[in-house]
Design the sequence.
C-alpha cells in the first residue's frame, strides 16, 4: 500500500506512535509518506520506503496566526495526487481530521477519492476536543472520516460519551518495538546516577498539567524518606519550572535530576526500578508501556485507559489521580521487597508483550484494507 501519515512531529505520544507505525509499515514493504511541518523526532535515519513531505507555510505579515491548516491541506492534495496514495492516516483529530476532510473534498473535484483514517489519541478528545471552541468541528470531522480508531477502550467510550458519533470506532492499542525497547546492561551508567546502589525512579512526559508532574515529585519525597533513592525527570514542558521549584522547596535538588528531552529513552529506562505516571488521565500511557517493555513496573493513576495497560498488583499499582500518599505507599512496598520487585519486573515485560508492534501492526494493515475496500465504490 502507499500510505500517507499526518501527525505532530514533536515528542508527544501521538507523533511518536505515528512515526513508529510508519517505520514499521515501511519495513513490511509499504510505501510511507509522512506529511508534517517538521521532520518527526523519531524519523532520523534513512529508510528506502519512507518519504518525508514538509508542509511549507508562508509567514506573511498579515497573518497573526499562520494558516497551517490551509498549507497542510494543499500539501496533502499534492502528495495524494502525485504519489498516488491509497490511504491517508491522520493522527490527532485537531486539526488533522478536519484538514483531511478538506483535502478529500478538493481531491474529489479532481476525480480522486482518498479514504481517510483518523486515530484519536486522547487529549484531542478529553481536553482539547471537548472544548466548545473545537467540539462541533471535531465531531463533524470524526464522523466524516472513512475509518476511526482509538488507542484504548476507555478513549473509545469517552469519545462516544462526549460526541454524537455515527460510526464504529475501532480500538487499536498503542504498541511497542521490542527491538528497541528492551532491558540492556547499562551498569556503568547506573553507577553515575546511583553510585551507592540507590533505587532509581523515573518519570517521563511532556510536563503538561494533565501529567501531574508535581505528584511524581511528592511521591518520590515520601519514598526517599524511607529508601535511598534517586528520581529521573525526563522531558520538558510548561510545568517544568514549577516542578524544579518544588524540588528546591523540599530540598531534594541533588536527588532529583531533570534530564530534559532525551532520544535514547530506553537506555535510561534500562537502569530504572520504578516508573511513575500520576496523570490526571491517559488515554493509554505509551510512556508506561515503554517502561514496562524495559522491565520497569509502574505506579500510576487509574485515569482513562491506564488500567488497560498497568495491571493493579501485577505489573504495578494504580490509585485515584491525586492520591499521592497511596501511590507513595505502593512504591515503597515494591521498592523495599526485592523478590516482589523482580516478580513485577517480569510481569511488566509479559504484559508489554501483548502490545508488541508485530501483533498490533497487522491490525492497522487489516483496517486499512477494510477501509479501502469500503471506499472503492466511492471512486468517481
Ligand atoms: O501525553 C500527551 O500529552 C501527548 C499525547 C499526544 O497526543 O501526543 O499523548 C496521547 O497519545 C498517546 C499515544 O496514543 C497516549 O499513549 C497518551 O496516553 C495520550 N495522552 C493523554 O491521553 C494525556
Sequence:
Amino acid at each position: 500500500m502507499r500510505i500517507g501519515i499526518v501527525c505532530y512531529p514533536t515528542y508527544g505520544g501521538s507523533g511518536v506512535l505515528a512515526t513508529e507505525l510508519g517505520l514499521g509499515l515501511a519495513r513490511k514493504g509499504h510505501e510511507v509518506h509522512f506529511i508534517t511541518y517538521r521532520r518527526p523526532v523519531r524519523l532520523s535515519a534513512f529508510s528506502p520506503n519512507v518519504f518525508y513531505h514538509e508542509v511549507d507555510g508562508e509567514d506573511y505579515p498579515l497573518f497573526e496566526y499562520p494558516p497551517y491548516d490551509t498549507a497542510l491541506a494543499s500539501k496533502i492534495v499534492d502528495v495524494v495526487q502525485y504519489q498516488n496514495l491509497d490511504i491517508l492516516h491522520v493522527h490527532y483529530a485537531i486539526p488533522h481530521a478536519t484538514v483531511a476532510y478538506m483535502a478529500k473534498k478538493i481531491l474529489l473535484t479532481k476525480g480522486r477519492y482518498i479514504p481517510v483514517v483518523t486515530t484519536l489519541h486522547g487529549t484531542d478528545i478529553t481536553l482539547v476536543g471537548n472544548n466548545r471552541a473545537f467540539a462541533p468541528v471535531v465531531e463533524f470531522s470524526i464522523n466524516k472520516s472513512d475509518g476511526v480508531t482509538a488507542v484504548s477502550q476507555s478513549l473509545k467510550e469517552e469519545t462516544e460519551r462526549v460526541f454524537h458519533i455515527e460510526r464504529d470506532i475501532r480500538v487499536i492499542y498503542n504498541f511497542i518495538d521490542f527491538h528497541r525497547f528492551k532491558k540492556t546492561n547499562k551498569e556503568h551508567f547506573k553507577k553515575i546516577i546511583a553510585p551507592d546502589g540507590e533505587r532509581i525512579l523515573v518519570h517521563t512526559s511532556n510536563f503538561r498539567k494533565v501529567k501531574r508532574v508535581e505528584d511524581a515529585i511528592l511521591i518520590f519525597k515520601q519514598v526517599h524518606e524511607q529508601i535511598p533513592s534517586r528520581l529521573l525527570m525526563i522531558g520538558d514542558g510548561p510545568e517544568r519550572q514549577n516542578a524544579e521549584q518544588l524540588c528546591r522547596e523540599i530540598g531534594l535538588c541533588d536527588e532529583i535530576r531533570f534530564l530534559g528531552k532525551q532520544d535514547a529513552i530506553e537506555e535510561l529506562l534500562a537502569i530504572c526500578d520504578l516508573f511513575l505516571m500520576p496523570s490526571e488521565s491517559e488515554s493509554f500511557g505509551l510512556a508506561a508501556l515503554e517502561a514496562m517493555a524495559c522491565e520497569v513496573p509502574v505506579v500510576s493513576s487509574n485515569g482513562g485507559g491506564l488500567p488497560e495497560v498497568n495491571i493493579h498488583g501485577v505489573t504495578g499499582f494504580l490509585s485515584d489521580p491525586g492520591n499521592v500518599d497511596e501511590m507513595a505507599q505502593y512504591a515503597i512496598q515494591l521498592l523495599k521487597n526485592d523478590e516482589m520487585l523482580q516478580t513485577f519486573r517480569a510481569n511488566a515485560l509479559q504484559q508489554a508483550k501483548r502490545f508488541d508492534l508485530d501483533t498490533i501492526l497487522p491490525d492497522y494493515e487489516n483496517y486499512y484494507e477494510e477501509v479501502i475496500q469500503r471506499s472503492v465504490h466511492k471512486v468517481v
